[in-house]
Amino acid sequence: MPIPLLIFLIFLVLVILRYIFWPNLNDTSKATIESNKFVMDTDGTRVLVNSGTIYQFMESLQLIENTSNIDTLKSRIDFTKKLFKRIKIAYMNDQRGYMAASSKAKSMIKRAYPKYYSSYVMNSLMNQDETYLSNFYSENVVRCFEEYKEKMILEISKLKTTPAKQKRIENVKSCYKTCCETLSFDECNIHMENLKELYEIFLLIYEESN
Asked: Which residue has the higher pLDDT, 173 or 47?
């Protein structure tokens, strides 16, 4: 085989191997979220968004769905609202990188919480639907209050003294107040009405009996 042809074939093989094993070696213009990409936040600052950020968001949504502690719920809602703003900016800047990071985060959350899966939550995340997410928050505020109320009712049923019972009633009142504050973002009145109805039924039964 002629030497020039041999050299050409070796060069061709090297070029092919380079594109197989290092396809993005020189493609610095397409850095994705996974490479610890900084994105501009709404206040002009640079913030980090990657699969870890999206994992934190998903984990907090999981806690929002399951907690009956209103303080935990409120803090997680505030936290996810801030994260969602950053994630949305990242999505707008690099949709392909965002989808890859979301897929990785989804796998991570399934490993960490095997029983956790909510297509409702996942859809709001993948589709960047703020209305979807707002409704999710509101439904869980009402759920959280109802679960906490039932817990206090159970405790009241086991108590003998009036002061101890009254303390649980005050706990429900305090929880209701926090729930109302948390729902202040919700423009749809139906969740507030549901919350108020649960609270008024509770008061009707337990304030009159005391």
From this structure: 173
